Amino acid sequence: MDTSAKRNKSSPPAPDIGRETRLELYRLQLELRYCEKRAYDLFLQNLIKGTSHLSLGQEAIAAAFGVAMRPDDWTFCTYRGHAHTLARGASMEGVLGELMGRQCGLLGGKGGSMHLTDVKKGAMGSYAIIGAHLPVAAGAAWSAQYRGTEQVAVCFFGDGTANIGAFHEALNFAAVWKLPVVYVCENNLYMEYTPISAVTAVEHPAADRAAAYGLPSIIVDGNDADEVYKVAREALNKARAGGGPSLIEAKTYRHSGHSRADPAKYRPEGELEKWLQRDPIVLYRERLLKLGFNEPTLIDMEAEAMRQVDAATATAKASPLPSVDDIEKNVWADGGSAWRN
Predict the structure, then answer these.
(1) What is the mean pLDDT of residues 185-200?
(2) Is residue 147's pLDDT more than 60?
(3) What pLDDT does residue 339 have?
(4) For residue 165, what are the CA distances in angstroms to 13, 16, 208?
(5) Residue 334 binned pLDDT confidence (cut-offs 50, 70, 90)
(6) Are 225 and 25 in contact (CB under 8 A)?
(7) What is the mean pLDDT of the chain?
(8) Residue 300 has what pLDDT?
(9) Among 181, 180, 185, residue whose Cα is nearest residue 163
């Protein structure tokens, strides 16, 4: 983990995260990976319409924060939000059903891939407009601060968002008011089809700008679930204690293109192969074995994760499409289509 020289050197080292936490991190990474791969398979079967943005290769970030957060914390994520929604405990059948436009979906099949939401689980929505959710997360954190609940808002965004005005406005507001919010930049090197390095004046699009808001520069290996978990836990504890916001840049890589319509031909030859050698799930499994974990236990976990995905797929496939009568339901706060002045 590279946290740069700007970080507070007096902070005590994080204790070892423990056996049970590591097993939970591995279990969750497996579920996220298998579910995302199944979503791609369902697209090839023409069962998922429209676009979707997969986070294959980035599971360690979502899993680490999912394990570290409290059940009453809030997650705000981008259109690449399947994993973050699942990591908060949203059901697989709800996610896959929503992608397939079925009644069992989290939003009754009306929202689709780019609007996944499960308020009961603290998954406060996927946002399709770049940077739109950063101020919203600040507002949620402000409400927690005002009510004294010690809840924390965690906001995930891509590297390109660091060049959006809302990024700077939200960070400044959060720092001035010392809001309990954690901003996490998932730097996968590309903003859609353009290398972030080609359009950004600093090497680290998020971390190198932290000092402008009086925040430490925090960079973490986003493919290492243990390291992300330690940084997440530290930032969450800081926020709960009234220490204000954190800005974390997690270095990672998406295995597929920007969306499923993108073959990613713009990537340099050999780049994908290099990152595949740092697949977060493969690396984590190897680490568990080196730490003395029983391989049959891991094999059982892998089989159980696949069983859950298969069961969720069957449920989603069997669920009917929404009826025309549903089109005016859950449009406004009163559950109807009437305009609320």
Answers:
(1) 92
(2) yes
(3) 54
(4) 35, 38, 16
(5) low
(6) yes
(7) 92
(8) 98
(9) 185
Q: Which residue has the tokens 């050999």?
A: 270
How far, rounded to the nearest angstrom, does the alpha carbon of residue 241 sit from its chain's CA centroid?
24
Q: Which amino acid is at 242?
A: G
- Cβ neighbours of 202 (radius 10 Å): 11
260, amino acid identity: R
CA distance 311 to 297: 21
Per-residue pLDDT tens digits for 90-112: 999 999 999 999 999 999 999 99
What are 250's strand-pairing partners?
Answer: 186, 220
Cβ(84)–Cβ(75) under 8 Å? Answer: yes
Of 23, 19, 20, residue with least CA distance to 285? 23
Q: Give the span between the Cα atoms of 211 and 133, in whole angstroms.
A: 22
Taking only the tens place, the pLDDT of each residue in 203-218 is 999 999 999 999 999 9
CATH 3.40.50.970 is the classification of domain 19-316: yes
Tokens matching residue 133: 């959710």
- Give the pLDDT band (50/70/90) at residue 53: confident
